[in-house]
Design goal:
Layout: H1 4-15, H2 21-29, H3 35-43, H4 77-92
């Protein structure tokens, strides 16, 4: 089960759109000195001790994921967006 504070925080971040994108990029690029960035990396299943470097940069185009369907009872919006993101990333990379 997901921590509601984490889900609410993710929802708030998504609703704020890309207004904070530059701050997020700075945090990730300074991950070794930023505890919040380390927490995000852990949530993305990275092993902190194995990370050699992180380079975050802004995409040169706008990208957004919106769920426009009923989510199955065994899933949630976080899982659905993660699936969509993985699919998009595979296509774009």
């Amino acid at each position: 089960m997901f921590d509601m504070n984490l889900v609410e925080r993710g929802s708030r971040t998504a609703k704020d759109g890309f207004r904070n994108e530059d701050d997020i990029i700075r945090k990730f690029n300074n991950w070794s000195n930023d505890n919040e960035a380390k927490e995000w990396l852990l949530l993305m299943n990275y092993i902190i001790e194995d990370i050699e470097y992180v380079k975050a940069e802004k995409l040169p185009y706008y990208c957004d994921i919106e769920l426009e369907y009923q989510i199955a009872p065994w899933s949630n919006s976080v899982k659905e967006v993660a699936t969509c993101r993985a699919f998009c990333r595979q296509i774009l990379m």
